[in-house]
């Protein structure tokens, strides 16, 4: 059975990281266990990722609330079939740009048609799963990696392009400047097979301190 991040393995991973890297060990001691966040591996989660692209958290939440209200789905996941019932004007009214409307529809159609099967993706190795997810219009590598982390609980996925992780890395390592994605991958290489746990820990550290307004991360 594929390893996933759960309460026990989250603790195991943090302790292994703390033993392997003094900086992570200090972060773990100072800030404690990161929260075990989870989103179901569904269209709803993929669409939330699309909605959140290039807008603030507050704006994304407002758009999502209006979409749920329009679909009468406040207590339920937004499904591909439900999203496809809305026309361009309805989606514009709730806050979808033309590009996000196109992405939402394309992903819905790909999942309904079976062109991309999220059940099949779940069984794939990390890189193969990322390659399959990025077939979906609007889903890039960062989005695919976050989906694998928070919907499938992958323990070693490392979204090196994430600004929030860059800020966290700069902080715990005492770097003179924010690292780029290439340096992020190099610095995190020794943390395998727990890089996904390290990502959760760095996001946790970043959220507990004052950080720049452009910080990202789930």
Describe the protein in words.
The structure is a single chain. The chain has 218 residues and is mainly alpha-helical. It has two domains: 7-37 and 156-207, Endonuclease Iii, domain 2, CATH 1.10.1670; 43-151, Endonuclease III, domain 1 (Orthogonal Bundle). The protein has helices at residues 7-20, 22-31, 43-52, 57-71, 80-83, 88-94, 98-113, 118-123, 126-133, 141-151, 163-173, 181-188, 195-207. The relative contact order is 0.15.
**Number of domain modules:** 2
How would you name the CATH homologous superfamily of the largest domain? Hypothetical protein, domain 2
- CATH names the topology of the largest domain as Endonuclease III, domain 1
The total count of helices amounts to 13
Name given to the CATH architecture of the largest domain: Orthogonal Bundle
Count the strands?
Answer: 0
C-alpha-based Rg, rounded: 18 Å
- The CATH C-level class name of the largest domain: Mainly Alpha
Provide the residue-averaged pLDDT: 91
- Report helical residue fraction: 55-70%
Q: Low-confidence stretches at least 5 residues in length (pLDDT < 50)? A: 210-218
Helix vs. strand class: mainly alpha
- End-to-end span in angstroms? 26 Å
Q: Major sheet: size, sense and barrel closure?
A: none
Strand content: under 5%
H/E element sequence: HHHHHHHHHHHHH
Shape descriptor: elongated
